């Protein structure tokens, strides 16, 4: 079921700049037992993304009302919000225009349950380009992720994307973390990549858990020397990595488990 | 007037991957006295872009039939073709799906006629990221161009975009050329930028005109030492540049005029 600007429909104007140019942002939210997990973080990221792209964000109250209209009795489902700059404009120039908002409900993705026990990571050839103006935000220009995700079939659960200069940035649909000597590491995303809401929650919990963490530039070599590796996103939660190239890891690792438990206890991931 | 997969409508499925992810390509074509200018080049680029993104291109015959359905008696108008990968898929993964095609007719843009005599170029702060997998093609991920184009209001006709390492790449909606000592130079687009159809035509004519041309890496410094500068695209044709920062140029330059005349004689630009 879909609402476009509050109206139930499954179509949108061809002139919408989301279609014409990928001119917008989105959020994908896990709903568990009627609760929007990590809503505050999703909303903050959406607002911040709109600000950076000079898109007028809708009112939170309206978005929440519309999400409420789509609620079902399912234990688990997904709400996707797309905010585009609006319809029209003169070429790339936009001027004043009225934002379009799409709220979609969809079924929970059928992830292989074994992935919770450990996945093998593919290494994508498609890189992520450095673009600080777009880094961190979840915008609608996702061709890099699409090309990367379609480099493999079903043999891997997720693929790792590197920047042009060989730094590990993220998975095609997730953020990546590794543990070495009890400390937590995750790539800096100031040049490219998406700052996931679960990533944010993990970094906020690390202090309370007494885990020292570092965001910075890391290579595949660093990951190949890691004690633990895991990926995170708002739907899959946390998947431990059991293999990366020839590097076999014991799963689930101690810190990975501790972090997943903490997120679960705080009702921030679905399972 | 708009056709979506052959049906007259101005809406498209919200699930279309063009909207969801910018997962598609487009072409903007000048129609003059009923003739699609540079059609072969537009079609070749569209096909090549589809191939590179693993999108199934529609049949040329069908696209031409639909364009014909939109014809009017106006001397000049614009046809835009958008081809998206289709609707659906599981996240970034696509699998087999049926392409969506949008054919739109719109009015000729109201460019200031003075631009034909010379424009002042803005220099954009928004850079173009290096992404060889997407370089050259006219895909739907255009946030960089949008951010760049909206750095200025109406004071400039066009803005110059540089790569992260300071090479001049293109205008926000055009390709850029310069002339120095009678030779023609234009940026290499193997790392980023869109290979315009008029750019292609110009490079093909250069030989016949006895003009030596070079594609390569050029900086703002090179442009500031140029004898002539001009920008090109399929709608505006050729605009000579009369000012770039403090560099004033005599317009229209001899080579610029010669190239524009040749394109006009071959019916490749509108005016």
Q: Can you walk through the features of this model?
A:
Two copies of one chain form a homodimer. In chain A, the strands form two sheets. In chain A, strands 8, 9, 10, 11, 12, 13, 14, 15 and 16 form a nine-stranded mixed beta sheet that branches. A six-stranded antiparallel beta sheet of chain A has the order 2-1-7-6-4-5. In chain A, strand 15 (237-244) and strand 16 (247-248) form a beta hairpin. The radius of gyration of chain A is 19 Å and the shape is globular. Chain A has helices at 17-21, 39-53, 60-69, 143-149, 197-208, 220-224, 254-265, and strands spanning 2-4, 7-8, 11-13, 24-32, 35-36, 76-84, 100-107, 119-123, 158-162, 168-171, 175-180, 183-187, 213-216, 228-233, 237-244, 247-248. Chain A contains seven helices and 16 strands. Chain A has two domains: 2-107, Aminotransferase class 4, branched-chain amino acid transferase, N-terminal domain (D-amino Acid Aminotransferase, Chain A, domain 1, 2-Layer Sandwich); 113-265, D-amino Acid Aminotransferase, subunit A, domain 2 (D-amino Acid Aminotransferase, Chain A, domain 2, Alpha-Beta Barrel). The first copy, chain A, has 271 residues and is α+β, with helices and mostly antiparallel strands. Chains A and B meet through strand 3, helix 1 and helix 4 of A and strand 3, helix 1 and helix 4 of B. Strand 3 (11-13) of chain A pairs antiparallel with strand 3 (11-13) of chain B, so a sheet runs across the interface.
Derived structural class of chain A: alpha+beta
Separation of termini of chain A?
Answer: 24 Å
Strands of chain A, count: 16
CATH class of the largest domain in chain A: Alpha Beta
**Rounded to an integer, what's the Rg of chain A over CA atoms?**
19 Å
What overall geometry of chain A do the principal axes of the alpha carbons give? globular
Number of helices of chain A: 7
Helix percent band of chain A = 10-25%
What is CATH's topology name of the largest domain in chain A? Answer: D-amino Acid Aminotransferase, Chain A, domain 2
Low-confidence segments of chain A, given as residue ranges, are none
- CATH architecture tag of the largest domain in chain A: Alpha-Beta Barrel
Interface with most residues: A-B, 52 and 52 residues
- Spell out the helices and strands of chain A N to C: EEEHEEHHEEEHEEEEHEHEEEH
How much of the sequence lies in strands of chain A comes to 25-35%
Identify the quaternary structure here: homodimer
What is the overall pLDDT average of chain A? 97
Count of all domains of chain A: 2
At the fourth level of CATH, the homologous superfamily of the largest domain in chain A is D-amino Acid Aminotransferase, subunit A, domain 2
Main beta sheet strand tally, sense and closure of chain A: 9 strands, mixed
